[in-house]
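Lab manual, section 2.4: Encoding a predicted structure.

Procedure: take the sequence of the chain (310 residues), apply the prediction step described in section 2.3, and record the output as structure tokens. A sample record is shown.
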Amino acid sequence: MARGFDHRRAGWSLSNLSVVIPVSLGAALSFAVSTNLKHSSAADLHPTTHLSIRTVGLFVRDMVSHPLWLLGILADGLGLGLQVLALHLGALAVVQPLMVTGLLFSLLLRHTHLRTLNRSEIGWGIALVVSLIGFLLVAGTASAPPAADAADRVPAVVAALVGAGVAVSSVLLARRLKPAVTAAAVLGVAVGVLYAADAALIKASTDKAVQGPVELVTSWQPYAVVAVGAAGLLLCQLAYQAGPLTASQPTIAAVDPLASVVIGVLIFDEQLRRGPWTGAALAGLVILLAWSVLALGRDRAVQESRVGQH
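Recorded output:
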């Protein structure tokens, strides 16, 4: 039989799409609810002005016992379950762009609850979501056939070192930055990198799980998932405390999928779609994405400066 496009495996059948789309949007909404709950709890936690070991320890103590943060973790669990279901039933090219709508959900929920967003911020939030979805659709990454050997170890090590360097540098830089908006955005870079790394580790762990439970529990990837995920949760909460949601969340939402694309290409042999206009389209979308993130932070900084003058 000729090898053609398998609609069942790719998740593109109409029956699958009728389930995948609402499940993906449900996951994005769950993550958005979690974001707002955890951001609301951040104001009640021990301040971490200089990110010292003592203040971070007190911050963690308050965080893990705060009711809103615990509710946020429950919402995260629901969102993760829905995301896993969506990825099981549908294609990554369908689910991943839909998950990006969680940013818009977060901003709209924040606006509904506190009325702290203006039309400009909502507009730039929409522009950010559109540019992210457009980038993912134009890039059109697809997995290459698995290699016969356990390759890609060198790119994985290099990517891990670079990612760790970016995350640590972002945290150290955020300690020195005075404007809350800027510090929160820089911490958001570290969070986005850690989230992308954790997604890659989850993918590697599922590959081990297919080989059997013994192979899974004796490999290092599942334990790295827990460690990197915990670091991401902590830094995310620190970013929420450092500044407004419009400073940290857009940065996280932008860095996470873009870093995931880089990891997919370097480590998992995923290939970007090629074409005469693909490069120009991707460059334009990245510029729009970066401009949207900067605009959201700038608008919030202007609003905070006006409030401080009154």
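Check your result against the sample. The CA atoms of residues 20 and 86 lie 5 Å apart.
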